[in-house]
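**User:** Everyone, produce a chain:

**Assistant:**
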Amino acid sequence: MQSHRTATQSHCKAGPASKIGAMTDLPALAERLLTDLCERHPIGIVPRLVWKRLRVTAGLAYYRQGAIALSSILIDSLERLETTLRHEYAHLMAYRRAGRRGFGHGEAWRAAMRELGEEPKVRHAYEVVRNNARQEVAYDCQRCGAILTRRRILPKRRKYVHAACGGALRLRHVRRLTD
């Protein structure tokens, strides 16, 4: 399962996109847009649309399942719906046409985006709300003494080394940042 952030320019016939008032309008509109994409650019399947509460990612393409997930939080206008849906549909087009070589944002995906009339941009520029850090984790490098900080503890049962010097890392502390 691959995930992809989305961004492209829309060429909607309806003109400038406006905020869509009720979120209940979006699923029906998305289904109509997807049906249109499938008719104009057939890929042998009709992808299943799923709405998820994604806070940073606007959409995801599930290659093997033939499905597209859209963010019910970030997709709040016709323009965002169209650009994200085309971006994710291009992933499925690339995969269906090129197999494993169609994964990601490679040449097969870029060609699919151009076929859909879109500029092949990888990431969206929508404002997002990110999680606040809940903890700080620090590790000591046993060779050079550097202190490395992270947001999450490294998985256990593995050995980690400092990329700069190759020294072994040892957990220094886990500090809670929020109450």
Summary: The chain has a mean pLDDT of 87. Residues 25-115 form a domain with the Zincin-like fold (CATH 3.30.2010.10). The CA atoms of residues 135 and 179 lie 10 Å apart. Helices lie at 25-40, 78-98, 107-115.
